[in-house]
Amino acid sequence: MLVRRASGALYKPLSRPQTTSSAEKSLPAHRNSFIKRIGPYSLGILVVAFILMAIALAFLCHLWVGDRNSISWRWVILNDYVGSAVALAALAIQVSVSSSGAVAVSMLSSLAMERWGVPLSQSLAISTMRYNNSGPLLSLWSFVRQARKTHGWKAVTFCLLMAVITLAANFSSTILLFDVHPGQIHGVPEMVDVPLGWTEGTSKEPATWYQNFMLQTPSAYQTFAEWSDPPEPAENMSDTGPLVRALLPFASEQTRTSIQNYEGPAKVFDARVACVRPNFVDSTFVVNSDLVNFTGQVGISARPPGLDSQRGNGDGASLNGFPLIPFECSVGYGTQICPLERGSVDLGLRSWLWEYFNSTQNVTASAFLFFESQYMLDAYNDTSNGTYRPLFNYNTTNQGQGWNSTGDGPWLNLQPTNWTLKPPCEATNSCSPSCEVFKTCGRPGLNASLCFDALWPDMDLPVQFNATQSRTEPKVTIDPTTNQLDLTPVRHQLGATGPRLRLSPTARNILTLSISSVRAALDALRPADLSPSLSAKLLDGSSLWFTLNPDYNGGGATSWTFCRDLRRAQCAYGGVYDANTSTTLASVTQGLLARSILDDDAGHDPAAALSAALTVLARMQFYDAAATFDFPRSAAATAFVTKAFPHAARGLAVVAGVCVAHVALVGALALAFARGTAWSLLDAAWAAAAQMQTEGVGEILRTATAMRDGDVEGMVVGEAGGGREGGGGGCAGEA
């Protein structure tokens, strides 16, 4: 039926759409195939975008959590390409997200047109977006404007999520770079020339002999490489076990601290020390006003593995199957080490180097008496007028003989009895600063331990050592709580931490020595046609050992005094040689180091203290002589370099989460598009326009110039019962 307009024109009113069930809507009579609906171009975009995204994520995962020794990873990092690599990967992710996001908006528009319905005023815009759109960010407003439709919130929600994901993807490079920081990795191996030793004919004596390094303060505490083999616990003994150390042939601290792998020559020695509880035989004390001399013979109470002697026992001067050693030591002050027989004896520990050669050659080694003296100058005997102490033998335990003796591991504890002691200075009103420092009043006593080293021989051997990270060399600082030097970092570096604290090489800031490389170097040195004893003569040489021998270190027949009291507060005096007492007062730092190791919290271990002291002396001698080395050697060294690379994976996790969420959302939309649409052709512009042409809409379009939009909308509401939405797929709008 035709109806006349106010202008006189006739028009045919929109007919009410026939009522159809939801089942009929969801089951169209004819549906285009999914591939035809989505179109080959859009499908190709999705496939390429997802492949590109997967490649970018795989590359990022390789940079973040892949093998850092691989050639590709090291090529990117060492050439400082990490920033460019992250930017390219992020760009690939952005392109993938934006292009596949545009296809997702097209599918979302189709769902809105065919399934959920859109307001008539937005139908043309939404329909056109099926063919051409600017992605979720710019398309969001069009979906917001149709959100008042019953199912419009679905389209808005999907588009909003897509917009957030796209926005996050645009910042992916920034997010990823939050994980990238400067750090250290091992660089490229390089061949370097290192001087080690002297050319033939060069005099070595000025650099290596006649220096008493115990008097000197170490200029540095150079890092070293180490291999150790802990010993089995034994009674009356303290043993470090084989402790093979290698000194790095580099004068530069920066080079020493940055070395990661090294294969070349180094100074190798065994820093092992074993201490046993001593047995004194026919030993006496002679006391004057400022000195206590302890003389006699000393033997062992336990035998450490590798302790050897070439002396015969036919004269009977032995104890427990080991020769007695004569001694004369000054023990008037707190912590002292007394080298026996001027530091040179034909008995001692066989170095691990000797043991590997299985040599029967005579051992050149050193023996020491380690003393802790407490208030011995304040002890007097009634019958001796203070000049002579009772004879002491290892089996003396009777107080009537003037001594009490007890044992504590490697220590022998001696306490004088039936002696008249000096009264405290407080009782005589004679206290003075000198009395407080050097003659403090208290109970007299003496701890003694017999120690053997394995420092001979040291050798220049081609070895290998490595580390997992760079390191720092310890520095001596002032402890503000005690106002004293703090040598804890040095003690940790030397491994003298006691049984309760075992630190790894990394924690100690040292390198790990490959003992197999030492074995290989010794095997190459030893000719196959020589017997072990003859080939061992190749090892018969040392330079570090001369620092221990008073005939060569300028100290004369001397004892080393580390501290004049058992308290660290009394270590602040040293670095001089007292000719009257034949005593070397060790430098303050060396005294504090030994005393701190002997404290109870560090294990009160004489072997650890002496091993640390010998290592410090050997290190001082080596680097002092290194300034004159002129014999060139070649080595392969790999140093740590500072480069920017990923240290954490938080940014990668965020970007990967964004990509996974994007793929999941696009996949959900593709599934809904496949199941819920019938006619939409995403890459056909004519189809998007043609699907707007319905019978009712066509009538309105033919007469649109005769009426205002408001009049048309009112007419549609009046005639169609409020049907304002444009239908999809060529059908009339929903009622």
Write a structural description.
The protein has three domains: 31-179 and 648-692, no CATH class; 224-641, no CATH class; 694-735, no CATH class. Helix 3 runs antiparallel to helix 22, helix 5 (82-116) crosses helix 6 and helix 20 (588-598) packs antiparallel against helix 21 (606-625). The two termini are 21 Å apart. Helices cover 36% and strands 23% of the residues. The strands form nine sheets. Strands 7, 10, 17, 19, 21, 22, 24, 29, 30 and 31 form a ten-stranded mixed beta sheet that branches. A five-stranded mixed barrel has the order 6-8-9-25-28. It is elongated, with a radius of gyration of 45 Å. With 735 residues, the protein is an alpha+beta fold.
